[in-house]
Amino acid sequence: MNDTTRAGALRVAVVGGGITGLAAALRLRDRLPADTEITVYEQSGALGGKLRTGSLAGATVEFGAEAFLTRDPAGGDSAAVALARRVGLADALVNPAVGRAALAIGGELRPMPPGTLVGVPGDLAAVAAVARPAAERDTDGGRPLLGPDEDPTVGELVRRRLGDEVVDRLVDPMLGGVYAGRADELSLAATMPGLARAARTESTLTGAVRAAMAAAPRPAGTPVFATVSGGVSRLVAAAAEAARAEIRLNAAVRELLPVPGGWRLVIGPTREPELVEVDAVVLALPARPAARLLGAVDVAVGALVGRLDYASVALVSLALPGPPVAADPLPDAVPSPGARGVVPADLSGFLVPASEGTLIKAATFFTSKWAHLRRPDGTVLLRASVGRYGEEHLLQRADDELVTAVHREVSELLGAGLPEPVGSHVQRWGGALPQYTPGHLDRVAAARSALRTAHPTLALAGAGYDGVGIPVCVRSGETAAEEIIKVLGVSRA
User: How close are the terminal C-alpha atoms of the chain, in Å?
Assistant: First the structure.
């Protein structure tokens, strides 16, 4: 047994080497004394979590998160953009070349209606081409839609005010693309906080949508999304380097125990564990492994955290040979069948409602969406997302079966027989996307409050608590680090 005890400089452990943990480590490095020992423990053999850049047919392709929002809801740069600037990647940020998306309705693609908030319309006329809102239901009752403590599911509120078609054809596929979840099961407050806040003051849903959008304006001409040229894994590597932390890969933390003045981590195999004592811990793990560690710290907190469930997904990437991407744009109506291999030039991707009965729920055309990925030989790179919450059995197919199904379904939706792929890759993400049921934010608040009271040098961070997306995860890690810095009471001058 290797017992490493504390002495001298502050020691902080970050458990989890995804972008959340790395953002926490970097903030700790920036704010704590220079001699602070910061160690990142990552169970797998690589940093980055769900950020993973790979290669397909000689091209750079994302096998995980593809891009991030450029703006923070409060205004200014998002936390992901700020992190990229902090680690020297400002010049590597690129924005989409095209941004037109489509919806699959009745087996055909229709342009995505503009001006919705995660599919919820503020202008009912704008969505009439793809869904028939029940406008008569969204009447002004003279009081706010929601009380101060109400947290319905997204589907519950939108169905009540605008009807089933808006949920099934617009909101559900939007949420399915982001969370792999269902509108009728996801918390409004956790997944659409801006709309939830507006619904506590507005008396109609369309009014709440307009108010929420007005509260988070985007300057004209500001791109919605960005990515890193060369792959988002560059952001992972740059953050790790800037943090100047000791990186421990293949280092599973099996136990977390409070000891006088700090924490003891039990690391590695049962037969030969390594014991490490530190002053503080940032726990940047998914909820389930975090709950297991918290069980030895506070049973009630572990139970609160462990209630969160996750959806599994598979990302199927295909490289298709030329001809080059078509010059004809996506028409305003349903596209007519095109020539073999043709993808509309301004189509960045599409979403598929669950009611369509397809395996795929979303597809992105990388070489249409991102100019820096376009190939001189006209190779088309596309990626489809497979798997919704509760449909994990569909992911049990072999890789080649998933590739065949995706190729067939994309061909059918485009109205064109796509050529056989010259390369493919299937990335499976088991338990990847949190499913925030009603009351999630209250449970997280209760867990964090209990820890602050009894164990203030232990902070929770990550998508399991604060939301999905690279900016949210970065902000979560940074906030957890700030809590630790405040408690330790030591920072750089």
Answer: 39
- Asked if 280 and 396 sit in the same domain, the reply is no
- CA 378 vs. chain centroid, Å, equals 30
Q: Which pTM does this prediction carry?
A: 0.93
Q: Which helix (H) or strand (E) holds 442?
A: helix 440-454
Element (H or E) spanning 490, and its range?
Answer: none
C-alpha 13/C-alpha 237 separation (Å) is 19
Q: Are residues 316 and 420 in the same domain?
A: yes
Torsion angle in degrees (nearest 10) through CA of 213, 216, 217, 221: -110
**Angle formed by the axes of helices 154-162 and 205-215, to 10°?**
120
Please give the sequence-ordered ranges of beta strands (E in DSSP) within 191-283, or none if there are none.
Answer: 225-228, 246-248, 253-259, 262-267, 274-278, 280-283
Tally of CB atoms within 10 A around 454: 12
Residues 435, 413: Cα–Cα separation, whole Å: 28
Rounded to whole angstroms, the Cα distance separating 88 from 84 reads: 6
Res 3: pLDDT: 47
- pLDDT tens digit string along 125-146? 999 999 999 999 999 999 999 9
> What pLDDT, in 10s, does the model give residues 360-417?
999 999 999 999 999 888 899 999 999 999 998 999 999 999 999 999 999 999 988 8
CATH of residue 38 = 3.50.50.60
Partner residues linked to 69 by β-bridges: 225
Strands 100-105 and 108-111: antiparallel
Q: Which residues contact 307 (CB under 8 A, 6 or more apart)?
A: 287, 443
Distant-in-sequence, close-in-space partners of 63: CB < 8 Å, separation ≥ 6: 52, 53, 54, 315, 317, 425, 427
Strands (E), 57-121: 59-62, 68-69, 93-94, 100-105, 108-111, 116-117, 120-121
Element spanning 86, H or E: helix 79-86
Task: State the residue range of the domain holding 276.
Answer: 2-50+230-308+436-488
Cβ atoms of 127 and 116 within 8 Å: the answer is yes
Q: What total of structural domains would you count in the chain?
A: 3
Alpha helix ranges (H) inside 108-225: 154-162, 164-166, 172-179, 188-191, 193-199, 205-215
